[in-house]
Amino acid sequence: MSPKKSTDAQDDMHPADVIAALRKRGTSLRKIAIENGYSHIQRVLTSPWLAAEQLVARALDKRPEELWPSRYVNPANRALAFQQTRKIAVTMPHQRNQTPRKPAHELTPGNFGQLADGPPQSKT
User: Fold this and answer.
1) What is d(CA 60, CA 97) in angstroms, rounded to the nearest whole number?
2) Residues in the chain, pLDDT under 50
């Protein structure tokens, strides 16, 4: 028999195993996504996404090709994906600027009429 030149999706780590491994490490896909400026990265479990693959692999102290070998069969495709992916810093979590937001519409006497306590006064 000749050695297998390609790998199939059966060699990839099962999505449930990835989630379980992350939970054992005290994290989740949601936490990883938020720390790195994404709203979600669950799609990485079923389809290629270079940036998210790197984030998950680093959280598990592995290389992405260990988790999803079928996605790394053709190095040229992955090199192109790497060039098109935004560079990510996984060592420092994404920090959002928490400045208070100004309300869209403030009530003032100029735009609401007379502001006073009690019943309206009649002019006599």
Assistant:
1) 28
2) 1-2, 90-95, 111-112, 115
pTM across the whole model: 0.59
Q: Residue 73 burial by CB count (10 A; 0-12/13-18/19+): exposed, middle or buried?
A: middle
Q: How far apart are CA 29 and CA 3, in angstroms?
A: 35
Q: Which residue has the tokens 């490490």?
A: 25
Neighbouring residues of 15: CB distance < 8 A, sequence distance ≥ 6: 45, 46
Residue 44 contacts residue 88 (beta carbons within 8 Å): no
Q: What are phi and psi of 108, to 5 degrees?
A: -135, 160
CA distance 93 to 42: 18
Using one digit for the tens of pLDDT, what is the confidence trace for 95-111?
Answer: 455 555 555 555 555 54
Quick one: 27 exposed, middle or buried, by C-beta within 10 A (0-12, 13-18, 19+)?
middle
C-alpha to C-alpha distance for 68 and 63, rounded to whole angstroms: 9
